[in-house]
């Protein structure tokens, strides 16, 4: 399942601070999320105020989504969190384009 959620176009209420809080490697609370580009039970791709964030794991589920405040909560077993910055953008884009074909 792949979904796309975008924050309201005004963007005024989106939290400009970005925090990632992990509890026991099975619950994530993320602030400063601009949009959820895609997700399934093994991977989430989020656009945050500090760049794209890929979350990989097992049995991942979106527990909470507040697009107005830019908050996402994810539960499941987390394997890794990776920020995709400008230096790795092309390499990451190739990876994701292969993944979502």
Automatic annotation (TrEMBL):
Signal sequence annotation: none
GO terms classed as biological process: sporulation resulting in formation of a cellular spore
Gene assigned in the entry: yabP
Gene3D superfamilies attached to this UniProt entry: 2.60.40.2000
Official protein name in the record: Sporulation protein YabP
A Pfam short name: YabP
